[in-house]
Structure formats: C-alpha cells, structure tokens
C-alpha cells in the first residue's frame, strides 16, 4: 500500500535537539512540579523520571496521582517560553517538505498553541494541513496506542499509508504495531548503523537530519 500521509513529531524532530528549546521546557516542567507539589529540585526530578517511565509523560502521572493539578495550568506554564533559540528554516527543510508528495501532519504531545508558535517561527506553517496535539488525544499522549488510533481514525487512513518521523524511540513502537513506516531522528553524534545499542527493532530507518531522509524514504515507493 503506497504512503500518502507523513506524520511529524514537533520538538527535537523538525529542529535539532541542539537548539535547546526542550531544555527550556524541561526547566519549566521541573519548576511546575516543585512549585505545585512543594518539592525540592531533586525530588521533583525523581518524580518526573518515575512518571515518564510509567506513563510516557510527566503530565500523565500528574493527572493520575495529583487531582488538584489543573491540566491547562500545566500546559500554559511549561510552554511559556521564548522562542529566541529557534531560527527560521534556511529553506532546506521547507524545500524537502515541499518536494514530498504526501499530506503532512504534525503529531505532537505538545499543545496546539506551542506547535503553531514553533511552525510560525520556523516559517513552516504552510506545509502542514493539520495538527494532532495532546488535547486531540484526550491527554493519552504518545506512546499510548490511543494517540495513534485517534490520528488514523480522523485521517481515514491505515497505518500502512503513513510514515512517522519521531525523535523518541519509544514512540515508534506503537506506530510500527499499526503498520506505519518508522523513521527515527537521532541526536547528532549517535551511531546510525543497525547494530548500535540504541537502535530499536521498531525503527525502519534513522537519520541525524530530517532533511536528508525526507526524499530518501519515498524513493523506493515512487510511482
């Protein structure tokens, strides 16, 4: 079955992790946990790690175990960051996206507002027809299987018709389980050979630069 939809994670996928934007968001998450739960920094980090391992996101753990934490308060607080570190696309990614003959969708655990700000800052907004965010998944974020089913149902697509570009290996396993083509956007410096320790069996292909693989992933399917 030919590909017709490209799903893109947002943070650390459309731009490299070296930009540092997620570091700012992580600082805000740490601060939120410290302030709302009255924890010292070390305890907040430990709790975040526990929740991430158990539920995939800090937010999911907070929702499950801390009923007084308001979800919208959390989303607004942790994404209240300046985007000064993020520069406009040089044209390389935009050209690659424009050449890709697939419908392009943002598929992110961030809220829609953050996604729109990032896309606008990078000058890429016009390339994407739709955004699936944390609210669209009813807060059952990637890697929860519900997130993938929500997107497929709304798009009227099968997994085999989709390719997912994603920087978090754990988020690729559910995608592969529903038949998606899976592409890992790995941090610079990580080895990409198939025997590398980090390489999950759920990854069809991997690259350091999303520009480099956009055309390559389609080449065998052309025509």
Outline the fold blueprint.
Blueprint: E1 5-8, H1 21-37, H2 41-55, H3 58-65, H4 71-78, H5 92-99, E2 103-107, H6 112-122, E3 130-132, H7 145-155, E4 162-166, H8 173-177, E5 181-185, E6 205-207, H9 210-218
Parallel strand pairs: 1-2, 1-4, 2-3, 4-5, 5-6
Q: Taking all residues together, what is the mean pLDDT?
A: 88
What Rg is obtained from the alpha carbons, in whole angstroms? 17 Å
Strand content: 5-15%
Oligomeric state of the chains present here: single chain
Question: Tell me, what is the CATH class of the largest domain?
Answer: Alpha Beta
Structural class of the secondary elements?
Answer: alpha/beta
Taken in chain order, the helices and strands follow as EHHHHHEHEHEHEEH
* CATH homology-level superfamily of the largest domain: HAD superfamily/HAD-like
Task: Please mark out the parts with pLDDT under 50 across 5 or more consecutive residues, or reply none.
Answer: none
- In the residues, how many domains can be counted? 2
Throw out a few tags for this protein:
11% strand; Rossmann fold; single chain; globular; DNA polymerase, domain 1; 223 residues
């Amino acid at each position: 079955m030919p590909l017709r939809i490209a799903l893109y994670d947002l943070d650390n996928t459309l731009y490299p992790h070296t930009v540092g934007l997620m570091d700012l968001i992580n600082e805000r998450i740490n601060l939120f946990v410290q302030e709302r739960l009255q924890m010292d920094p070390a305890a907040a980090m430990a709790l975040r790690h526990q929740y991430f391992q158990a539920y995939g996101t800090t937010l999911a753990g907070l929702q499950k175990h801390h009923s007084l934490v308001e979800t919208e308060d959390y989303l607004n607080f942790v994404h209240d960051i300046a985007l000064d570190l993020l520069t406009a696309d040089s044209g390389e990614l935009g050209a690659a996206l424009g050449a890709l003959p697939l419908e392009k969708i943002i598929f992110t655990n961030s809220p829609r507002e953050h996604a729109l700000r990032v896309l606008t800052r990078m000058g890429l907004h016009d390339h994407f027809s739709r955004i699936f965010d944390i609210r669209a998944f009813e807060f059952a974020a990637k890697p929860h299987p519900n997130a993938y089913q929500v997107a497929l149902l709304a798009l009227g697509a099968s997994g085999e018709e989709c390719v997912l570009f994603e920087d978090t290996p754990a988020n690729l396993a559910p995608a592969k389980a529903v038949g998606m083509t899976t592409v890992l956007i790995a941090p610079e410096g990580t080895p990409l050979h198939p025997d590398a320790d980090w390489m999950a069996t759920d990854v069809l292909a991997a690259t350091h630069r999303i520009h480099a693989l956009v055309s390559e992933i389609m080449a065998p399917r052309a025509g």
